Amino acid sequence: MNKKNNQRAQQTQKRIKEIFLEMLSTKKINQVTVQDICRVADINRTTFYSHFTDIYDLMKAIEKEQDEKIRQIFYLEADNTYHNMTEDNLLSLLRLVYEHRVFYQVYLTQFSDNQPLCDQFIAKWNDDFSEQLRNQSSELSKMDLTELKYRFEYYKAGIIGTIQAWLNSDCKETPEELAFVMKKFLSL
């Protein structure tokens, strides 16, 4: 019996994802077919479809995994909040992006209609941080909150743009070198 959570099924899913990402390093997502993946993985199409509905569902599954990894970098379960951006978690984020650069290159360029993963995290961080500020000081003016909102938009665009430029340059700098540069303009 081949249940979705058994070890063999998990290994098959992992293999499908690996092959898919390998193909994305040389092709656009709309050029990768289920048939291509099945041929390389030496599986039947029914096996693929028992795990994913199509190529885009496969991409969404990888996205979900990456989203969880980003959340683990920044989320403090003990007090149900997000870390402020620090040099350490920025470096962890850049190492994650570097390790999964093929995914992020595709995701940040070919899925521009979607809100990028980092964008989702930063938006959540913004909401949590703003709430924490509101709770700490009832004297924050509307102007202060407006400034804070735009400051986060500015940082968000800068972080995403810098990561995209780094990916587009084929990650010439190490994650450590890029973190050193980014910490200067993020005031970490």
Provide structural commentary.
This protein has 188 residues and is mainly alpha-helical. The protein has helices at residues 7-24, 34-41, 45-51, 55-74, 87-99, 101-110, 117-136, 142-168, 175-186, and strands spanning 75-76, 81-82. A two-stranded antiparallel ribbon has the order 1-2. Helix 4 runs antiparallel to helix 5 (87-99), helix 5 (87-99) packs across helix 9 (175-186) and helix 7 (117-136) packs antiparallel against helix 8. The longest helix has 27 residues, at 142-168. It is elongated. The mean pLDDT is 82.
- Percent of residues in β-strands: under 5%
Low-confidence stretches: none
CA radius of gyration is: 19 Å
- Quote the distance from N terminus to C terminus: 52 Å
Major beta sheet summary: 2 strands, antiparallel
Q: Roughly what percent helix? A: over 70%
* Spatial strand arrangement across the major sheet: 1-2
**Strand tally:** 2
Q: SSE order, as H and E?
A: HHHHEEHHHHH
Q: Which word captures the global form? A: elongated
Average pLDDT reading:
82
The secondary structure category is mainly alpha
Tally of separate helices: 9
